[in-house]
């Protein structure tokens, strides 16, 4: 107790010193805060201004383009843009199918691996993780050649993997390949953190292995992948690299505004309408925020049930 | 990638796991026929995981003609790897080597910068009480819901104004201030750097900066290495960002260069296919080596479930 009192006294006597110490401590954050303000906050603030303006060329299209205040015009146009919503629908459908499917497959795999000796499972680990270590662009390149009718080992099947009906399957298959090993490992990790007593208790109560899997292990994993799934869906909704690469092979199927992110890229850097591209970015961000909140609430409900 | 960055205290959790693994066989083991079923499945999965990479290894030994005519999963007659490497590194006066070097040093500088800046900030947020701390934490949390796509276009406008467009710094600076990493470092520092130790150092006369550079920094090696690794891989693999911000192709990174080749397909002298394939293979070697060597850091993502 006397130690506590002493501390209080010291604290009082050294108030200026403590303040100085805190100030010095805060200097560690200054570089971060400065960079954060410039590279994260400033662009967002800027986007809120840019979206209210439009570039307009004078009568003959000569001379400097002038910025004209247009109010909410860009945003209204973005909200009514069917191309955007069609693109969003595509990625949303893809995300809603692919992300849970990948998680489900990984979960089954993790349950299976959990049922063999850890040493045995460990032997397969590096092999299963190689796809995850492969850079995304490289794995896209590999699969493009594996799908391509000229170099594919599957060319005897005569399947056109870039066909408009199949292209999502082709991309999804690629995503599964790249992520399965890693996701499985995450699930496996969460399986191993289930307290052993719970499983033992269930077994003593006469629960079968299947029952244990469904009533203990699966709920445990589901609750622990909430965030993985959430991030997965949000990330997939911003899909850009894979369709962009596929477009260089199959421009007829993958249009320039195939996904919202591609449409924004095209609008900003090919068409050159920065203001409208900003409106689309803001719209996409707003939709993603709403989607995250909905998903979060929904998963909270699932977890409680 | 985001899943891997979620964990904060990987080492401890990892140890627990290892001890659980090395203990006598887990009670979950299946026996008999179903054991072989599971093993068979694991083998199949491994084949699925490795086969495309096997295709790549086989493909780099082929020539522009045999790549189209022979079975993709086995070697063709001639061994053309050295010729391919020679072509790759001499095409357009060795532009590939330039891209590779750009990627190496940019990734290195970016991840070193990000590591120092975010670890220092996270440390201060965990260990000091100062005015504005709550505001900074609030901004960090709020930034988590902002999708990356939102930043691209306005960043383009901003960087054009300040001369960052087509400038090396555009690859380095924006990646150095990732709020998620600062948050990670903060959570880790809370558990890893004891107040008593800092107090003792103060009594011995060490200043705040010296405490950080000589004591606290060493206790935060794990999050620092994790942040370094994830940034290195992230910036090595980044594609959209350099495509938007780097115009001069001498400044490009290797991923962007490969995309430009695949989009072009052929030029007047060459079918670029073999260059893309060989280039893709070379570009993945450093990352794979680094990731295997630093497994314990990124696999900490594995414990994400246990941290909930």
From TrEMBL, chain A:
<dbReference type="InterPro" id="IPR035906">
    <property type="entry name" value="MetI-like_sf"/>
</dbReference>
<protein>
    <submittedName>
        <fullName>Sugar ABC transporter permease</fullName>
    </submittedName>
</protein>
<keyword id="KW-0812">Transmembrane</keyword>
<feature type="transmembrane region" description="Helical">
    <location>
        <begin position="28"/>
        <end position="52"/>
    </location>
</feature>
<dbReference type="InterPro" id="IPR000515">
    <property type="entry name" value="MetI-like"/>
</dbReference>
<dbReference type="GO" id="GO:0055085">
    <property type="term" value="P:transmembrane transport"/>
</dbReference>
<keyword id="KW-1133">Transmembrane helix</keyword>
<feature type="transmembrane region" description="Helical">
    <location>
        <begin position="124"/>
        <end position="146"/>
    </location>
</feature>
<dbReference type="Pfam" id="PF00528">
    <property type="entry name" value="BPD_transp_1"/>
</dbReference>
<feature type="transmembrane region" description="Helical">
    <location>
        <begin position="91"/>
        <end position="112"/>
    </location>
</feature>
<feature type="domain" description="ABC transmembrane type-1">
    <location>
        <begin position="88"/>
        <end position="295"/>
    </location>
</feature>
<keyword id="KW-1003">Cell membrane</keyword>
<dbReference type="GO" id="GO:0005886">
    <property type="term" value="C:plasma membrane"/>
</dbReference>
<comment type="similarity">
    <text>Belongs to the binding-protein-dependent transport system permease family.</text>
</comment>
<dbReference type="InterPro" id="IPR051393">
    <property type="entry name" value="ABC_transporter_permease"/>
</dbReference>
<feature type="transmembrane region" description="Helical">
    <location>
        <begin position="218"/>
        <end position="240"/>
    </location>
</feature>
<feature type="transmembrane region" description="Helical">
    <location>
        <begin position="276"/>
        <end position="298"/>
    </location>
</feature>
<feature type="transmembrane region" description="Helical">
    <location>
        <begin position="166"/>
        <end position="188"/>
    </location>
</feature>
<keyword id="KW-0813">Transport</keyword>
<keyword id="KW-0472">Membrane</keyword>
Automatic annotation (TrEMBL), chain B:
<feature type="domain" description="ABC transmembrane type-1">
    <location>
        <begin position="100"/>
        <end position="293"/>
    </location>
</feature>
<keyword id="KW-0813">Transport</keyword>
<feature type="transmembrane region" description="Helical">
    <location>
        <begin position="138"/>
        <end position="159"/>
    </location>
</feature>
<protein>
    <submittedName>
        <fullName>Carbohydrate ABC transporter permease</fullName>
    </submittedName>
</protein>
<feature type="transmembrane region" description="Helical">
    <location>
        <begin position="224"/>
        <end position="246"/>
    </location>
</feature>
<keyword id="KW-0812">Transmembrane</keyword>
<keyword id="KW-1003">Cell membrane</keyword>
<comment type="similarity">
    <text>Belongs to the binding-protein-dependent transport system permease family.</text>
</comment>
<dbReference type="InterPro" id="IPR035906">
    <property type="entry name" value="MetI-like_sf"/>
</dbReference>
<dbReference type="Pfam" id="PF00528">
    <property type="entry name" value="BPD_transp_1"/>
</dbReference>
<dbReference type="GO" id="GO:0055085">
    <property type="term" value="P:transmembrane transport"/>
</dbReference>
<dbReference type="InterPro" id="IPR000515">
    <property type="entry name" value="MetI-like"/>
</dbReference>
<feature type="transmembrane region" description="Helical">
    <location>
        <begin position="272"/>
        <end position="294"/>
    </location>
</feature>
<feature type="transmembrane region" description="Helical">
    <location>
        <begin position="104"/>
        <end position="126"/>
    </location>
</feature>
<feature type="transmembrane region" description="Helical">
    <location>
        <begin position="36"/>
        <end position="57"/>
    </location>
</feature>
<keyword id="KW-0472">Membrane</keyword>
<keyword id="KW-1133">Transmembrane helix</keyword>
<dbReference type="GO" id="GO:0005886">
    <property type="term" value="C:plasma membrane"/>
</dbReference>
């Amino acid at each position: 107790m006397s130690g506590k009192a002493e501390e209080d006294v010291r604290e009082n006597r050294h108030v200026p010193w403590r303040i100085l110490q805190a100030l010095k401590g805060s200097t560690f954050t200054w570089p971060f805060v400065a960079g954060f303000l410039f590279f994260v906050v400033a662009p967002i603030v800027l986007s809120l201004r840019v979206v209210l303006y439009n570039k307009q060329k004078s009568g003959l299209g000569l001379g400097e383009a002038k910025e004209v205040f247009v109010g909410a015009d860009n945003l209204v146009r973005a909200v009514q843009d069917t191309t955007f919503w069609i693109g969003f629908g595509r990625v949303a459908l893809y995300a809603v199918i692919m992300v849970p499917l990948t998680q489900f497959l990984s979960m089954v795999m993790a349950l299976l691996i959990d049922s063999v000796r850890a040493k045995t499972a460990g032997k397969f680990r590096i092999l299963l993780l190689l796809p995850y270590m492969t850079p995304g662009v490289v794995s896209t390149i590999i699969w493009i050649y594996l799908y391509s009718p000229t170099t594919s080992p599957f060319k005897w099947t005569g399947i056109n993997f870039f066909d408009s009906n199949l292209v999502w399957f082709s991309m999804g298959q690629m995503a599964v390949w790249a992520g399965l090993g890693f996701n499985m490992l995450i699930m496996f990790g969460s399986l191993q953190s289930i307290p052993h007593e719970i499983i033992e208790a269930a077994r003593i109560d006469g629960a079968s292995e299947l029952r244990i899997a469904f009533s203990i292990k699966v709920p445990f994993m589901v609750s622990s992948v909430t965030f993985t799934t959430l991030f997965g869906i949000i990330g997939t909704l911003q899909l850009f690299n894979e369709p962009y690469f596929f477009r260089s092979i199959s421009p007829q199927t993958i249009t320039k505004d195939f996904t919202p992110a591609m449409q924004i890229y095209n609008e900003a850097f090919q068409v050159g309408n920065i203001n409208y591209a900003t409106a689309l970015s803001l719209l996409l961000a707003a939709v993603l925020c709403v989607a995250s909140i909905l998903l979060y609430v929904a998963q909270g409900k699932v977890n409680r049930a | 990638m985001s899943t891997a960055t979620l964990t904060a205290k990987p080492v401890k959790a990892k140890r627990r796991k290892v001890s659980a693994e090395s203990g006598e066989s887990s009670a979950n083991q299946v026996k008999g026929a179903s054991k072989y079923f599971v093993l068979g499945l694991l083998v199949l999965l491994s084949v699925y995981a490795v086969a495309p990479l096997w295709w790549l290894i086989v493909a780099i030994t082929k020539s522009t003609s045999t790549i189209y005519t022979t079975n993709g999963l086995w070697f063709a007659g001639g061994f053309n790897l050295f010729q391919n490497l020679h072509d790759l590194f001499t095409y357009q006066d060795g532009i590939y080597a330039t891209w590779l070097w750009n990627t190496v040093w940019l990734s290195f500088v970016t991840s070193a910068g990000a590591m120092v800046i975010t670890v220092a900030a996270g440390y201060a947020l965990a260990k000091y009480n100062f005015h504005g701390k709550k505001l900074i934490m609030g901004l960090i949390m709020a930034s988590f819901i902002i999708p990356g796509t939102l930043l691209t276009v306005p960043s383009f406008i901003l960087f054009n104004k300040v001369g960052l467009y087509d400038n090396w710094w555009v690859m380095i600076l924006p990646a150095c201030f990732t709020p998620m990493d600062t948050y990670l470092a903060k959570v880790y520092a809370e558990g890893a750097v004891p107040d008593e130790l800092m107090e003792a150092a103060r009594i011995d006369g060490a200043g705040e900066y010296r405490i950080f550079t000589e004591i606290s920094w060493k206790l935060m090696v794990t999050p620092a290495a994790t942040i370094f690794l994830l940034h290195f891989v992230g910036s090595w693999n980044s594609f959209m960002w350099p495509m938007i911000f780097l115009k001069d192709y001498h400044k490009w990174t290797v991923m962007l260069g490969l995309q430009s080749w695949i989009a072009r397909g052929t030029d007047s002298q060459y079918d670029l296919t073999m260059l893309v394939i060989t280039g893709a293979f070379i570009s993945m070697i450093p990352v794979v080596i680094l990731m295997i060597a630093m497994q314990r850091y990124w696999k900490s993502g594995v414990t994400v479930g246990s941290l909930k």
